[in-house]
Design brief:
- The chain has helices spanning 42-49, 75-79, 97-106, 112-125, 141-153, 171-186, 198-204, 245-252, 256-260, 282-285, 287-305, and strands at residues 2-9, 19-26, 31-35, 57-62, 65-66, 82-86, 159-163, 190-194, 207-212, 215-220.
- It is an alpha/beta fold.
- The strands form 2 sheets. A 6-stranded mixed β-sheet has the order 6-7-8-3-9-10, with helices on both faces. The protein has a 4-stranded antiparallel β-sheet with strand order 2-1-4-5, covered by helices on one side.
- Strand 4 (57-62) and strand 5 (65-66) form a beta hairpin.
- InterPro entries: AAA+_ATPase, ABC_transporter-like_ATP-bd, ABC_transporter-like_CS, ABC_transpr_LolD-like, Cell_div_FtsE, P-loop_NTPase.
Length: 311
Amino acid sequence: MIRFDDVTKTYIRGQNPAVENLDIEFARGEFVFLVGASGSGKSTLMRMVLKETAPTSGTVHVAGKDLSRIPSWRVPALRRDIGMVFQDFRLLPSKTAYQNIEFALAVIGTPRKVVRRLVPEMLEMVGLEDKGRRLPHELSGGEQQRVAIARAYVNRPSILLADEPTGNLDPSTAEGILDLLAEINDRGTTVVMATHDRTAVDRMRRRVVEMVGGRVVRDDPEGTYESVAPVSVISGNLPDGAEDLEDREDQDRPTTDEAATDEDTTDVGATDERRPLIEPDADDLLDERDAHLREEDEAFAEALDDPEATR
């Protein structure tokens, strides 16, 4: 379903890669947690799945397609098969819950008869069948996230990416969102969720992939948030900020001067001076998608304001 073959992504020439030599596969129907400290490469991985950014080297395959071979004019069709859920919901504030879900259908020209059937089905699935006429500010945070999930899933995508979907929610509400994502996964959709939610990961006991410095350091089929792995940053086995694994290996090697003091030790040469990993923060990483979403929102609004496009 999703496969990375020796993928490296460098944003700024001369800086360490945001993702490096990534070889990993997510099978159809899996539920996978991506964990790791901020800057570990989780957001970059998701951006490459969405073809919002291209790898510097290597290939990314999604649903059997090599993304490097997909022309730009076919990218919207690719993204229609990938749902995306964000931590901050990203609902249109002037549109009701019903209309927010309707947008995802209107933009692809779904017939009104189908829209009138699908939107109520989605509202019922997320437990908001009686709140379709409410605006986002009239809904709780958990309800807003449920609307966002319904909007992402209404096209029945084969892949659902969730970037910290429980990050702004209280534990009880977060549990309900996890149950909803699990239900979507049970219906056959591959779910990849980036999270710092320890409780969610420990409760679900699904596949856990931990990233450190742009590399996968742990891949547990039924894992927990923390790990005894010595390279885990989130478990406290390494300090946050010590993301570059090669840096740590170099620190363990003797320098030229140290090697020279031991006649039985081969001279390994001076260690390379490396810059710390710099990966754009979440806001920077999503700037391109924000612009794309704003363009879509404007198109959606025009479609809904057109009497021929409304219910």
